Amino acid sequence: MGQASRRPAEASLNEAQLLDTQRAFDSVAEDYDGPRGNNELIQRMRGTLWDTVSREVPAGAQLLDIGCGTGLDAIEFARRGYQVVASDWSPAMVGRTRSRAAVAGLESSVVAVHLGVQQLDQLQEEFGGIYSNFGPLNCAPDLHVVAQECARLLKPGGKLVFSVIGRICPWELGHYALRGRFRRASVRGTRGPAAVGMNKHTIWTYYYLPREFYRAFAPLFSLEHYRALSLFMPPPYLVHYYRRRRHWYERLGRLDDHLGALPLLRDMGDHFLIVMRRR
Ligand SMILES: C[S@@+](CC[C@H](N)C(=O)[O-])C[C@H]1O[C@@H](n2cnc3c(N)ncnc32)[C@H](O)[C@@H]1O
């Protein structure tokens, strides 16, 4: 993968755009771990990140969750014996994580903090691993700054495990192109931030190929491996296909499991899961 190249300053997200994204997620926090944020296809992808983090970071370590949402991952990792600092830019999401930890009796293992990925300089702890699930890093104004902050916060040899929204999603291309919605079909090709609607709000999102994403981290992190998530399976918002023929789609899921890390295939999919190691 190539040399680091900074995104032009004018293409970086501004304060108003960050607040748009915050309001969008605040508006859905109440029911986000229902069908919207945690349907069967999302749970399947979530399981892959859980197992990857468990393999890459020793149990008992302190983890940082960037963009924790309602705290489903943080609670799972607390149950697996990690200490978790769960951060999110949406105060409503942080509230959901905090109450989930209280209900589970895991307040001593999960600390929820209102902190955007653009504010990581405010953290002083040291972490054995940092993870981020389902695209919070697609909302980061500057990945180079994220890479520097992660390097500062991680112990030497510590791991990053990120699931990131990718650029090439064949299901999405086919689904929208067949309906004549060509602009929607091509949204992941946008250079710079794309305005994506959710619940009558706007999320400002960058899309990445794995190699574009890794470029920002390359000076400080070695690339361990990456794989496609939901390449043969449809993306989670097309879960109705899956529900019509579960048995058949489970076979596609197994193709994801077996083939998703192969060259070329790993560059596609709804998301990609990338693991990097602090040099
Ligand atoms: C698709 S949700 C995923 C949530 C959670 N990781 C999960 O797996 O359910 C994206 C999350 O990123 C958060 N987010 C958006 N912009 C962010 C930012 N600038 N910094 C930190 N979190 C952000 C949102 O508030 C939301 O909780």
From TrEMBL:
<dbReference type="InterPro" id="IPR041698">
    <property type="entry name" value="Methyltransf_25"/>
</dbReference>
<dbReference type="Pfam" id="PF13649">
    <property type="entry name" value="Methyltransf_25"/>
</dbReference>
<dbReference type="InterPro" id="IPR029063">
    <property type="entry name" value="SAM-dependent_MTases_sf"/>
</dbReference>
<dbReference type="GO" id="GO:0032259">
    <property type="term" value="P:methylation"/>
</dbReference>
<keyword id="KW-0489">Methyltransferase</keyword>
<protein>
    <submittedName>
        <fullName>Methyltransferase</fullName>
    </submittedName>
</protein>
<keyword id="KW-0808">Transferase</keyword>
<feature type="domain" description="Methyltransferase">
    <location>
        <begin position="64"/>
        <end position="158"/>
    </location>
</feature>
<dbReference type="GO" id="GO:0008168">
    <property type="term" value="F:methyltransferase activity"/>
</dbReference>
